[in-house]
Amino acid sequence: SSVWKMDRPLHVVTPLVHSSALSQLAGRDVFLKLENVQPSGSFKIRGIGRTMQEAVKNGAKEFVGSSGGNAGMAMAVAAKQLKKKLTIFIPTSTLPFMIEKLKAEGAIVVVAGSNWNEANQVVVA
């Protein structure tokens, strides 16, 4: 949902399903938590979303981060829900489909460095 209220988390409650195949292999019940159904596609929206909510409560007007993967996607989804600008620095190794997903969420994408450490150095400099 594009409507966000300060008192609710940015993540969704995800299903927990029993896996017969893994339970048989393990000799005990195994359940799978389907975090892939989060708006960002991973569990990372839980912590990143909460951190960004707190930052907004404390006066953050925009966000800057570095990640060409699931953490970046969580930042982009959270920023969009919070109606805040996000500039994200990604390495050249970031896959094109991820760049498009970040942009589709409204993130400003800056390519910097050949790996995450190099991209992050630009952010913290």
Quaternary form:
single chain
Biggest sheet layout: 3 strands, parallel
Give the structural class. Answer: alpha/beta
Helix content: 40-55%
* Radius of gyration from the alpha-carbon trace, in angstroms: 17 Å
How many E strands?
5
Give the DSSP E fraction (strand runs of 2 or more residues).
15-25%
- Spans of at least 5 consecutive residues whose pLDDT stays below 50 are none
Q: Report the principal-axis shape.
A: globular
Give the CA-CA distance, first to last residue. 35 Å
The total of helices stands at: 5
Q: Which H/E pattern describes the elements? A: EHEHEHEHEH
Strand order of the largest sheet: 3-4-5
What number is the mean pLDDT? 92
Could you describe the 3D structure shown?
- The chain is of the alpha/beta class.
- It is built from 5 helices and 5 strands.
- Strand 3, helix 3 and strand 4 form a beta-alpha-beta unit.
- Helix 2 packs across helix 3 and helix 3 packs parallel to helix 4.
- It is globular.
- The N and C termini lie far apart (35 Å).
Summary?
With 125 residues, the chain is of the alpha/beta class. It has five helices and five strands; from the N terminus they run βαβαβαβαβα.
Features:
single chain, 125 residues, alpha/beta, 3-stranded parallel sheet, 5 helices, 42% helix, globular
